[in-house]
Amino acid sequence: METHIITLTFQECSARYGLAPAAVHEFLQAGLLRPAPAPDTVIVDEPDDLSRLARLHQELDLAPEALDIILAMRQRLVRLQQALDRETFRARQLEGFLRGAGPLEEV
Question: Could you say which of 33, 73, 80, 84 would form a disulfide bridge with 42 (CB–CB 3.0 to 4.6 Å)?
Answer without folding.
Answer: 33
